[in-house]
């Protein structure tokens, strides 16, 4: 089903919190009192395609390495495996958004709902998995509860719970998103506001999203890693230090990519709630910030494998061992360039990191 809406409705919708609502539509100008500059659509499409390839290849390698070491997997590896799968699912959506930036939404109403919901699922699952990793490291290092971290079957249930929760939390996106025709007969994909609610509903959904899907998990991570750092400062275990170095890098990358976007959306919500007064200049700056910080959020899906490759010694060695097994490289090459042990089976350490 298609709907016709006027330009003023579209203008308000393009500055919402969803991933695709800042889309640059070809040869289309919105009739609104405030004119904002948009990022070049071809540039955005190029970035999305590049991130798609990097994320798909990098996270596929992570899945390969972790699955290959299935008998040595720690609880952290299980979480990282699910994190890689979430990023792969997100990467699959990027070609759709790249096409959307250039040609408008040409994939129909169901795909508009499904692709938007899939991105939301990735957001929730990513932050919740990172929070679980911080709790896992807290119990393994601070509480020294190795027997807990070794019960991988429990970790699988936790991951299942995260996926189910992420799907449930993404249901509003699936329900409220739809494709529309503009007056210029250009298809767009955004919220069906006329049928499902007002700005008040949007603000409520934003509050839930940022509370459950960002700030609460962030507080958990800060507490767990703060305690973990304090404990590590009192130990000389190089193995734990190396593993934590990668995990810290993963969390830091997530914050650098997603924190600016979330802060910008909070500012936007305050303006929409009339708590903060807005002018055309401020509105333009916030809209531009939403578009720019959204790109960093997209890029995050391909960063973790890069961190594993450059910082995670065990990841490199595990990958090289797979290449030796498949006959791609020789054992001599592995002995020269593959330094460090990957044979640890301790529940306190990751066979991947």
Automatic annotation (TrEMBL):
Organism's domain of life?
A: Eukaryota
Q: Which GO terms describe its molecular function?
A: C-C chemokine binding; C-C chemokine receptor activity; C-X-C chemokine receptor activity
GO CC annotations, alphabetized: external side of plasma membrane
Q: Where is the G-protein coupled receptors family 1 profile domain?
A: 58-308
Regions that span the bilayer: 47-68, 80-103, 123-142, 154-175, 203-225, 246-263, 289-311
Instruction: Please state where this protein is localized.
Output: Cell membrane
Q: Would the keyword Phosphoprotein turn up in this protein's UniProt record?
A: yes
Q: Supply the alphabetized keyword list.
A: Cell membrane, Chemotaxis, Disulfide bond, G-protein coupled receptor, Glycoprotein, Membrane, Phosphoprotein, Receptor, Transducer, Transmembrane, Transmembrane helix
Against InterPro entries, the record matches this protein to: CCR1-9-like (IPR050119), Chemokine_CXCR_1/2 (IPR000174), GPCR_Rhodpsn (IPR000276), GPCR_Rhodpsn_7TM (IPR017452)
Q: Name one GO biological process term.
A: immune response
Q: What is its main location?
A: membrane
UniProt membrane topology term: Multi-pass membrane protein
Q: Which Pfam families does the annotation name?
A: 7tm_1
The keyword Membrane appears for this protein: yes
Explain the purpose of this protein: Receptor for interleukin-8 which is a powerful neutrophil chemotactic factor. Binding of IL-8 to the receptor causes activation of neutrophils. This response is mediated via a G-protein that activates a phosphatidylinositol-calcium second messenger system. Binds to IL-8 with high affinity. Also binds with high affinity to CXCL3, GRO/MGSA and NAP-2.
Similarity comment: Belongs to the G-protein coupled receptor 1 family.
Quaternary organization:
Interacts with IL8. Interacts with GNAI2.
Output this protein's name.
C-X-C chemokine receptor type 2
Could you tell me which species this protein originates from? Geotrypetes seraphini (Gaboon caecilian)
Q: What is the lineage of its organism?
A: Eukaryota, Metazoa, Chordata, Craniata, Vertebrata
Q: Which gene encodes it?
A: CXCR2
């Amino acid at each position: 089903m298609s709907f016709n809406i006027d330009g003023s409705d579209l203008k308000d919708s393009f500055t919402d919190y969803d991933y695709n609502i800042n889309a640059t539509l070809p040869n289309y100008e919105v009739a609104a009192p405030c004119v904002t500059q948009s990022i070049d659509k071809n540039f955005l499409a190029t970035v999305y395609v590049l991130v798609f390839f990097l994320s798909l290849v990098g996270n596929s390698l992570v899945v390969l390495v972790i699955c290959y070491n299935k008998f040595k997997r720690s609880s952290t590896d299980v979480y990282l495996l699910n994190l890689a799968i979430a990023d792969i699912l997100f990467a699959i959506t990027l070609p759709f958004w790249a096409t959307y930036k250039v040609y408008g939404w040409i994939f129909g109403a169901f795909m508009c709902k499904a692709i938007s919901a899939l991105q939301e699922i990735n957001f929730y699952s990513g932050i919740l998995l990172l929070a679980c990793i911080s709790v896992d490291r807290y119990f393994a290092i601070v509480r020294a509860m190795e027997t807990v971290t070794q019960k991988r079957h429990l970790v699988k249930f936790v991951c299942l719970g995260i996926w189910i929760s992420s799907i449930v939390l993404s249901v509003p996106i699936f329900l409220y998103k739809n494709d529309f025709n503009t007056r210029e007969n250009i298809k767009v994909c955004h919220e069906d506001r006329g049928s499902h609610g007002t700005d008040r509903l949007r603000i409520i959904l934003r509050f839930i999203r940022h509370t459950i899907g960002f700030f609460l998990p962030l507080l958990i991570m800060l507490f767990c890693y703060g305690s973990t750092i304090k404990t590590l400062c009192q130990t000389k275990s190089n193995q734990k230090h190396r593993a934590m170095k990668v995990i810290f890098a993963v969390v830091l990358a997530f914050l650098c990519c997603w924190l600016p976007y979330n802060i910008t959306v909070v500012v936007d919500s305050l303006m929409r709630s009339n708590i903060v007064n807005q002018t055309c200049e401020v509105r333009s700056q916030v809209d531009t910030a939403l578009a720019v910080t959204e790109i960093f959020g997209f890029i995050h899906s391909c960063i973790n494998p890069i961190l594993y490759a450059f910082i995670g010694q065990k990841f490199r060695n595990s990958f090289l061992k797979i290449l030796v097994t498949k006959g791609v490289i020789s054992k001599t090459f592995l002995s020269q360039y593959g330094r460090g042990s990957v044979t640890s089976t301790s529940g306190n350490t990751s066979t991947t990191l």
